[in-house]
Amino acid sequence: MVNDIRMRALLACGIAVLVWTATPAMAGVDEGIAAYQAGEYDQALTELEPAARQGDAQAQYYLGTMYAEGQGVLRDPSLAHTWLTLAANQGVTEALFAKARIGDSLSQRDIVTSLRRQNEILTASAEGGSGQDEVAMASPAAASSDGSAPAQTAAVDDIASMGRRDLVRNIQQELNRLGYSAGKPDGLYGPSTRSAIEGFQKDRDQSVDGEVTADLLRALRSAEAG
């Protein structure tokens, strides 16, 4: 079943690649790369993201690296996998190696979500769109267990644009909603928040590490109070 899911997703991506028209390098790519190399990640994101959505392989590689390393954005291995795979499929060797390095941290569900997200980006680019909403919506929480499309369109995922304090605050709010006492939702990570996260992870049979991550917030938002 798992192999069938992956094959269907890969086939969908392959079909989309065939219709992806070649896109000239956008003017912002060089500026984005220069900003990235200078450590100006906010500017790099501004320049690279539109170009990546329009199919520029170098922009996709650098954007994937930013999500893999948490440079100027929240670390998101699933989203990193999306951009690095798109870049690797266009011949960026560095992207292939970078994708391999994060592969072990991804669940099968993460990979299926990433593959569907790639297909949506490729299709939007071929049709002249940006793929922006598709990238935001295709979070692990929106994926069904069999890899099929969710019954209803998910709300736009705002998590990827959150700073750490906003992420902690939202996690605290969700933990409190679910009955795990994380204390005042002030965005400050302390013992109460860590203990509440560990309690949630233990009850859901997840790996217990108490860490604040984008995937944790997605899981919390999709969870029902017991």
From TrEMBL:
Biased composition (Low complexity): 136-151
Keyword list, A-Z: Signal
Signal peptide coordinates: 1-27
Domain of life of the organism encoding this protein: Bacteria
SMART domains with a match to the protein in the record: SEL1 (SM00671)
Boundaries of every Peptidoglycan binding-like domain copy: 165-220
Region feature Disordered, mapped onto this chain: 123-152
Keyword Signal (UniProt): yes
Keyword 4Fe-4S appears in the UniProt entry: no
InterPro entries cross-referenced by the UniProt entry: Peptidoglycan-bd-like, PGBD-like_sf, PGBDSf, Sel1-like, TPR-like_helical_dom_sf
The protein's name in its UniProt record: Peptidoglycan binding-like domain-containing protein
